């Protein structure tokens, strides 16, 4: 099942082909879906010039008009939900139902930030007679943004929404493996009347793009979602040129299941969420620390849910989990499983690639994983869970905080005392209790420690796309 297509660059309000291309692969059957354009240095330089002109126009556009354009584009995305979802499923592998929800989630990011565009308030500071101090927020300028393959539409949506709502223009480098989600965003804004140059879309060699765009004097900010290693590299480039960086980086989310929690309900909920998008989610619950008194019933409920999952092509209506994104994920997952088992971990289920076309890795769970196993320290970013017993909530918090990551953390408890300990003790930018939802349009999202810098979403989300100007006015 293939939809052949070619994906082009979008620069200065025009779609353009390039001499170089690379294939787009369907991870469910390894067939070529089409070709994606690879930008040259001259393409990137033209994108910067287009964004500079786009910023000149858009930054002078009223917040109300900006919000109206964003809302029109979001409405078009909702209308085109099925078409966008189909392209996401074919390129990424996730189930069609998950892809449909991603489209709505992306539209919600735009709708929320469109409202926030009207609320970028400044203030007047009380002063002496004859002088006035004012603080205003001005759009920072051209933004260079980089997004990954795991959420091809909603991840670019977050960056584009923040930039456009603030009055900035943006050059976005989305994933070459899953390019069509962001193409649909660009088409929606084109149809909604966004001025040329405000939104520019490029693909190509990641290092070439980052090393061309970030040092350019016209680019004033960098926004990135991806691995911690790449995020550190881009932050270093930005720092050399004194440019702010918004970084949403890796995680390895812990889940603490306290002794007073319902082990069956928690086990089913955790397994359901763990294998969403084949576990390829930065906030995916991965390290499960379960009180020893309820460990066995939790594991039984978790595995029962795993056994009910249907793994297959995302376009099939009964599919619960599709393939992982590429063969690199297969190799990485197998290495982590083999290492853990060799060191004494229990293989509770899965642990292998399916013998069929496509990048299918079985839903996997490891039990009683020893501290020396790599998987306890390295984010698996796939359908792999670790379930270990703990003796107390304090023990769980200590284990949860051992890693340098702190994006999301979860807890299950009916005790207000335990909930207080979890909320205070867990080192994460997003802590969720009795739910595995870590991010919504109306709430700030981001990490601590090596999981990132800054926040997206909520009232805080637009603050990174503006600069503060203090105005002192002496009145004659």
Strand order of the largest sheet: 15-16-17-14-13-19-20
CATH architecture designation of the largest domain: 3-Layer(aba) Sandwich
Beta-strand residue fraction? 15-25%
Number of domains: 2
* DSSP E strands, number: 23
Structural class label: alpha/beta
Instruction: Please state the CA-atom Rg, rounded to the nearest Å.
Output: 23 Å
Supply the CATH superfamily name of the largest domain. Answer: Aldehyde Dehydrogenase, Chain A, domain 1
* Name of the level-1 CATH class of the largest domain: Alpha Beta
Give a quick account of the main beta sheet: strands, pairing sense, barrel closure.
7 strands, mixed
Number of helices: 13
CATH topology name of the largest domain, in short, is: Aldehyde Dehydrogenase, Chain A, domain 1
Low-confidence stretches: none
Give a summary of the structure in a few sentences.
With 476 residues, the protein is an alpha/beta fold. Helices cover 37% and strands 23% of the residues.
């Amino acid at each position: 099942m293939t939809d052949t297509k070619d994906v082009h660059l979008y620069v200065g309000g025009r779609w353009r082909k390039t001499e170089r291309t690379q294939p787009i692969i369907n991870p469910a059957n390894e067939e070529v879906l089409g070709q994606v354009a690879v930008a040259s240095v001259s393409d990137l330089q033209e994108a910067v010039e287009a964004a500079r002109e786009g910023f000149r126009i858009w930054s002078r556009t009223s917040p109300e008009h900006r919000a109206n354009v964003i809302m029109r584009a979001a409405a078009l995305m909702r209308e085109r939900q099925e078409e966008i979802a189909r392209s996401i499923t074919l390129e990424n592998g996730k189930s069609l139902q998950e892809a449909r929800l991603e489209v709505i989630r992306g539209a919600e990011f735009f709708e929320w930030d469109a409202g926030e565009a009207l609320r970028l308030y400044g203030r007047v500071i009380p002063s002496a007679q004859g002088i006035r101090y004012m603080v205003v927020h001005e759009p920072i300028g051209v933004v260079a943004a980089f997004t990954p393959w795991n959420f091809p539409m909603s991840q670019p949506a977050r960056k584009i929404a923040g930039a456009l709502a603030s009055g900035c223009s943006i050059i976005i480098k989305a994933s070459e493996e899953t390019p069509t989600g962001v193409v649909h965003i660009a088409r929606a804004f084109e149809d909604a009347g966004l001025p040329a140059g405000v939104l520019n879309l490029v693909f190509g060699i990641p290092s070439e793009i980052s090393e061309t765009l970030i040092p350019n004097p016209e680019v004033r900010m960098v926004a990135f979602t991806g691995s911690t290693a790449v995020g550190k590299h881009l932050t270093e480039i930005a720092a050399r040129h004194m440019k702010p960086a918004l970084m949403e980086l890796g995680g390895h989310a812990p889940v603490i299941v306290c002794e007073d929690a319902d082990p069956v309900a928690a086990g089913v909920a955790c397994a359901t969420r763990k294998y969403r998008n084949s576990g390829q989610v930065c906030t995916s619950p991965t390290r499960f620390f379960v009180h020893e008194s309820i460990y066995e019933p939790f594991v039984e409920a978790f595995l029962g849910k795993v056994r009910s999952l249907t793994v297959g092509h995302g376009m099939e209506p009964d599919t619960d989990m599709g393939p992982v994104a590429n063969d690199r994920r297969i190799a990485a997952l197998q290495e982590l499983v083999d290492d853990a088992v060799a060191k004494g971990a229990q293989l509770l289920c899965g642990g292998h690639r399916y013998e069929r076309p496509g990048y299918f890795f079985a839903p996997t769970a490891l039990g009683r994983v020893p501290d020396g196993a790599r998987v306890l320290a390295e984010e698996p970013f796939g359908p792999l869970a670790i379930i270990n017993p703990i003796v107390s909530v304090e023990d769980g918090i200590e284990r949860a905080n051992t890693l340098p990551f702190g994006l999301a953390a979860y807890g299950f408890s009916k005790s207000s005392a335990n909930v207080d300990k979890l909320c205070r003790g867990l080192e994460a930018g997003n802590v969720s209790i009795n739910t595995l939802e870590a991010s919504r349009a109306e709430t700030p999202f981001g990490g601590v420690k090596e999981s990132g810098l800054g926040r997206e979403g909520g009232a805080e989300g637009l603050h990174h796309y503006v600069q503060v100007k203090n105005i002192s006015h002496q009145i004659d």
